[in-house]
Amino acid sequence: MAEARGYALGAVGRPAEALAALDEALAEAPRREVSLETAGQVAAELGEWDAAAGYWTRLVDVNPWRPPYRTRLAAVLVKRRDWWRGLEECRAALRLDPASVPVRRLLITCLLAGGNKEQARAEFDRLMALNPPDREGLKEWFDRAAR
Description:
Elements: H1 2-11, H2 15-28, H3 33-45, H4 49-62, H5 67-79, H6 83-96, H7 101-113, H8 117-129, H9 135-145
């Protein structure tokens, strides 16, 4: 019941109330994937990065084999500027989905933030070898970020 209320509140644009309802649902079923995923999305939408990281971490603990869960956790960790954990999560996500362009971008961001320009350049070269869409935009992004 609380989970459904959380979805309904989210659908009508009341994210803070939706998150409270989802927390209620998670109190009853703390490992329910769909509730954790939705709570992580809502917390991120609210800009509550610490809460979002908590939900995504719990979700990865429940199901470590779903690349989107790890990708979302990595993205939230980057928002929190938790470069080390973000780097580790990106690497775990890439073990599951080595061709993920978004995860490679996050990985490069973490490497650059940590001052490791050589590794970031090597990762960028791997990214470009995947022949991603918008190659020129990615090159411009990397050139700006690597300065």
